[in-house]
Amino acid sequence: MALAGETGHEVTPDRTQRMLATLAIAPGRRSRFERLGGAMLGGTDGAEVRRWGDDMLVAFDGRLDNTDELRRTLGSGAVTAMNLVALAYRRWGEDFLDPLVGDFACAVWDGGLRRLFFGCDAMGARPLHYWMGAERLLFASEPRGLLALPEVPRVMNERWVAERLALLPMLDEATAYRDIRRIPPGHVAVVEGGTVHLHRYWRPETLTPLRLAGPAEYAEAVRASLDQAVACRLPPTGLVGANLSAGLDSGSIVSLAARRLAAEGRRLTAFTAVPDPGFSGYVPPGAIADEGPLAAEVARAYPNIDHVRIPNLNGDRITAFDRFNAGLERPVMTTGGMAWGANLFAEARGRGVTVLLNGDGGNMSISHDGLTLLPTLLRQGRLIDLVTEMLALHRHGVWGWRGMVNLVVGPFLPAWLRRWLFLVFRRGNGQSLADFSPLSPRLAGELGIDGQIRRSGGNLFQAARHDSLAGRLAAILRNDHGMAWAGVRRMYGIERCAPALDRRVVELCLRIPDDQFLHHGETRALIRRAMDGILPNTVRLVRSRGLQNADWTLGLATSRAEYAREVAWMERSDLARHCLDVPRLRRLVDEWPDGGWHRDEVIRAYQLVLARGVAAARFLRRFDQGNE
After folding, report:
1. Secondary structure class of 617 (helix, strand, coil)
2. Over the stretch 317-329, which tens digit does the pLDDT of each residue have?
3. Which of 106, 267, 411, 612 shows the greatest Cβ crowding within 10 Å of its Cβ?
4. Residue 386, by phi and psi: left (phi above 0), alpha (psi -120 to 50) or beta?
5. Residue 203: which pLDDT band, with cuts at 50, 70 and 90?
6. Rounded to the nearest 5 degrees, what angle is found at the Cα of 67, between the Cα atoms of 63 and 73?
7. pTM of the model
């Protein structure tokens, strides 16, 4: 499940073998590599490498989902993904990845042109990274493969770390390592004559709007597309697992998977994270702290589902930070859900699950709330339709007038005015960097990150809400899914799959008009219609949202001493003091609250700032070993 290779002067197997040995997960599985001219391609853990013809090498890792379509288009009976990739390159050249659908990474060496092409699928489900030196280019699925070689320096990318601490989206090539670059989703790198240029092949902004006869036809299209995406990710044998919350995304995916597996006489194990048995804390109005009962409704609807509830038993958080930082090769930012995620993955592994379905990306594809319709109606001058939709939303009781006015006019206001209104009315978090980030104010100023936050007007995606496609794409692509899933494979031996991020599903949903997602005041209306008769109504029609990690205070309460030790290390470390707001983190540890953990300012300070700061500090130790 990993690729590595090189091109340049004096190509030998040594470097590729060393990278593959570092990338390998399965013990005893032999790595393969091939050399042709000035290139060496290799693969391990099931990744394929093959010479094709006299002048081409092909390496492939992952899964192709449209093989039948490709065979028809290419006029070939080729069976393997390797041959289809080679034929696609012969037909389409630099754009050869565009017709391919699936979760994959691949590389092609054209010996005749002396060009190397390597890239990943449209969603970036399989990662690829590279390093360019004076005499050669090296590439590997994960940074650890490149760092196994002495010529690749382990130097921190200060700007990248600062941007992650500020929760800015990952939309370019940068990584945590200064000299290592990644291939962004939907791109292919072209290497020729000692230079690299990126070619963007996936261009969803060119999609044309879809016009169908009515709501029923849109619902059927989404249901069929999602069902196809689920089917592509079910292994032919073995135990299949799935994350199951009280939400629409995971419930829909689990229901469709259960139906397909039942037809084959197979079972599905669904895992639901629930609060610690000792939790009795504050739950915001309209939130669901324990998603177990609603998830159980889905499990009861399908007799072949085995439902497992995973309590959020909090353990050594520092050890957990270290493990996830190492697996993902970046600092953990979602510290709140890390404990229950670790427990869930460990339970799934213990039960023999090798494929775990999840609902990642669904809120921007299948269950888009449709609220981007409101500023669109204003921009189009459809004021009667706008007022009608706002009145319907208000009747449903989900949105108050102040929030809806912000949704309607906020995207069109100057950033300074949006920010002022956020401050005056205290709408949401994120009015300033200090509200959610442990980043050093000095470093934020030097790099211009605080200015970027200010220019956003308090919401990095608010300005894009008047452009539904741009805003949703930014949300889908802002995270590095490939490295997140690669980390889980490495830590737990589990393949995570996200049917809602299937390219065909995403493209379909981006083409559907917003008035199908927001319909007569009903948000997420399209997935509710699509799952009628498949997802139990007790889940399909619920409007409350699950509150993941509701019991976060129980774990934090036992972590004060650990956090204090970490802050003491930060105070001794020049690097930590440079990157983090260490004085503030010290105050948070020293002024530990006796109560009031449900207050917004306490949640932001301890769940967001302090926990993230400690997780980031554990990552910084990779680059600063002189202050232990």
Report:
1. helix
2. 788 888 888 888 9
3. 106
4. alpha
5. very high
6. 140
7. 0.91
